[in-house]
Design brief:
Distance between the termini of chain A: 60 Å
Number of domains of chain A: 3
Largest sheet of chain A: 6 strands, parallel
CATH class of the largest domain in chain A: Alpha Beta
CATH superfamily of the largest domain in chain A: Response regulator
Number of helices of chain A: 13
Order of helices and strands of chain A: HHHHEHEHEHHEEHEHEHEHEEHEE
Oligomer: homodimer
CATH architecture of the largest domain in chain A: 3-Layer(aba) Sandwich
CATH topology of the largest domain in chain A: Rossmann fold
Helix content of chain A: 40-55%
Shape of chain A: elongated
Number of strands of chain A: 12
Strand content of chain A: 15-25%
Chain lengths: 339, 339
DNA sequence: CTGTTAGCGCATTCAA
DNA sequence: TTGAATGCGCTAACAG
């Protein structure tokens, strides 16, 4: 690879000192017009661009924001990233995106790598494995040293820091209420294992809706999907009960779509025999047949808000620290054909 | 933000010189056992981690690979990224992912930002706008200075460089052949505008299959979707013809799913009245009803291969330059219920 | 065995 | 108006 041009080379080439070049390139009036123009022209000709590493090191400012997500193939996370991007770019920040693959060790590595000078702030959605283990010391360290850090969606309750979360409980509540309003009585939920906070919250809201309307919360109607195993088989259990439910709330889009497939496989009609509602911000719901009613998660907004919070922390002066915030993003029911 | 610990601080604290600390931390035998252990213990206690910016600047090596994609919410791209990640991580490289949003200007900015010291190599799928304009000078510069650069999927024919592409033409050909084998006669294609190379190639292959089997390539059966406008309306045109087609090849998953919806909306049966085949590496095809037959794109493999190529270029010695490679990833038909 | 010096690319302070 | 010196955090060559 041929070497890139730098200030020193320009200086040597033009017979001036590096500091003169540096100043001339930022149009400093310290430098004479003629020299300035000569240097600028030369720099342009050779397409000089300052080395960002050197700049970052010098300024102690990278203009980068780190983002750690559990999975990049999950549409929700990419929506959030788009939202982060949009706000960050407006302020000339770039993103460094890392994927933990829901593994604790990868997450720890990513955190270390990013916070050792590469970024000015960090946005994280915590890996499932970290949540299971309850091992948050890598984040605790950052909190302790006041490193700008914002969590979104998958957060740790006992960890200080700014957070942006979906109002999962109300979302679940509205999902339950919606099914009840549609005249459904035997309501099932397809959710995640208990260490996944978002699943738990959605389930809690759902249960609350059932309680309020005096609907029985049947333990047979609760499926906790383990993604290690065949998802469809697990969901299919609902259809092997003596009394098959007539309404299903799935805590994500994929589970909802699979539930719909299972329903139709049995020759049952949606929404007549079975209503299905999902929880998502995805692409699938509009494309299924019938289209899927969902609780909209607004990932893009979440990203916006998350980015605003980190930028705020980054700009924050040492003396005027704000208390930690938890921003709650509201959901809403998007009614389509499946209910 | 409280200041991070560095070598200088450790040195001062322990009353030794910075270089002693540096050596001790990498367990150099130049340093006496006692001092070494003292320093290591201290570093561990205060959780010292070397500043990566300084390391990169010093070593002229960042251990980062830049990735520029047009859209992060497209599942295909995230699959490729996963593939890149997996190979890169094995060799201790990290990814810096940037999104061009299919805009030329953003792409140029991303290229500049990444190649000014932030990464050792670059992986790019070119923005639509860049392809339309045919303006590749920002890439040409990199090629000229032998910067490690690999394109994938959306490539520029007249640009030198390593490339990893899908065998779109054969894919399109197989799609056509598959529909014909299923006994379909009036074959339509839903494709992209003409500047999108991948769409053009798929169309070319499709046409070839039709030619071989003496099927008429009806211009009314070609829909070029402009994403600016309502996609469903554009696709619906196929169903307003006097003679509605009985087979559709859509060059991506979304178009295929919408085509299926249009079909069912008309009360037509899939695959009896209308067979639909898509082109994708996505999540939707398994979840539609009926499930969708597709040409599998193998994005993950593509990512693997792409990463291998950049790493190869990065390691390459100045004198032993390999000629540019174009790797072609084969597709295959995944038959499901829609054909 | 330990320390001094220099330099990666840049910007800034201060001196000329 | 220009340039020399310094330092951001680190390492490697060299000196002691």
């Amino acid at each position: 690879m041929s070497k890139k041009i730098n200030i020193k080379i320009i200086a040597a080439e033009l017979g001036v000192s590096p500091s003169t070049v540096s100043k001339a390139l930022k149009d400093s009036h310290e430098i004479g017009r003629e020299t300035r123009e000569k240097i600028q022209a030369f720099a342009k000709l050779y397409n000089y661009k300052p080395n960002s590493l050197a700049l970052s090191l010098r300024n102690q400012k990278t203009m980068n924001i780190g983002v750690i997500i559990p999975q990049i193939t999950h549409h929700f996370f990419t929506r959030v990233i788009s939202g982060i991007e949009s706000v960050a770019n407006q302020k000339d920040y770039n993103l460094m995106i890392c994927v933990s693959k829901d593994l604790h060790e990868k997450e720890v590595k990513n955190v270390e790598m990013l916070t050792n000078g590469s970024v000015d702030g960090l946005i994280v959605s915590i890996a499932n494995e970290t949540l299971e283990k309850g091992e948050f010391s890598h984040f605790q360290r950052l909190v302790d040293e006041d490193f700008p850090l914002v969590f979104f969606d998958r957060v740790a309750p006992n960890l200080k820091g700014d957070k942006v979360i979906v109002d999962d409980e109300t979302g679940g509540y509205n999902a339950g209420k919606h099914l009840i309003e549609k005249g459904k009585n035997r309501l099932a939920i397809i959710t995640t294992p208990e260490h996944v906070t978002v699943g738990v919250m959605r389930e809690r809201g759902f249960k609350k809706a059932l309680d309020e309307q005096n609907k029985y919360y049947n333990q047979n109607y609760v499926i906790r999907v383990e993604e290690k195993f065949d998802i469809e088989k697990q969901i299919d259990q609902l259809f092997q009960l003596k009394e098959i439910p007539d309404g299903i709330f799935a805590v994500n889009e994929t589970y909802a779509a699979i539930a719909m497939k299972c329903t139709m496989k049995r020759g049952m009609q949606i929404p007549r025999d079975m209503a299905v509602i999902g929880f998502t911000d995805g692409v699938i719901s509009k494309l299924t047949t019938p289209t899927m009613t969902t609780i909209a998660q607004h990932g893009y907004n979440m990203g916006n808000k998350t980015a605003e919070l980190v930028l705020q922390r980054i700009d924050e002066k040492e003396n005027e620290k704000l208390p930690y915030q938890t921003v709650v993003i509201q959901t809403n029911v998007v009614e389509r054909e499946s209910t």
